[in-house]
Amino acid sequence: MLRCRQVIEIVGSDMLPEQSILLRLRVWLHLAMCRYCAAYRRGLTGLRALAARLAARAESINPSRRMEILLAVRREIGK
Amino acid sequence: METVAEENLDLLFRAARAAGLEDEEAADVVQEALLVFVRKADTFDGRASVKTWLYGILLNKISERRRHQVREARTEEMDSVIESRFDQDGSWIRPPAPADVYTAGAQAMQWLGDCLGLLPERRRNAFVLREVEQLEVEEICKIMDLSPNNLGVLLFRTRSSLRECLEAKGIHGSADVTL
Hints:
Oligomer: heterodimer
Distance between the termini of chain A: 64 Å
Structural class of chain A: mainly alpha
Helix content of chain B: 55-70%
Strand content of chain B: under 5%
């Protein structure tokens, strides 16, 4: 029988797709029956959504600084 | 090479910011990384993508910057917090809070930034590359020189640590939380 600790490690490690069909089915059944592990998985989804918002919100580099960097790269290429 | 630099500059900057650097410092490490890329371009063997290679250089530059900072690798302490939620049989004794406790609200973003800042560098890098930059496992393994299994364990512990931190902030509204 799969334990909760095992299930959340499989789910939280992105390794589920690599597992056998049997193990994936067992994890799926466990998540269907265990509200705590299902809550953990929903938490991962929430965390992923937060990270996506972090990425979307990231400010672009200051345009003048961007130009400075590209000029530095150009100078280095020219050496 | 100039085109490569121009095409990747913004995403490198985003990754540096997500890794916890302020604007000016992030711009500095991006510049350093791109200059290294130009100097070592003839050593690029094509086994990884250019983007993967650039991320690797960037993370090294960030790591060099942080060398002088004392950031204890409190990984054992973090992992013990995670394990304390389970009994010896692996069943929950302290179940997770509902996700909306820590993901809802405008403050959640600030909390995530705060919690990322508390992580050891390796764990933070793994999370940023996977969740913020959305790189594939294979790419991250090349950048961080990890096997897929090791990366999986690292991601699990990182996500669990972040959940602990966010949950504590969300439930207690505390600005000062240790992982």
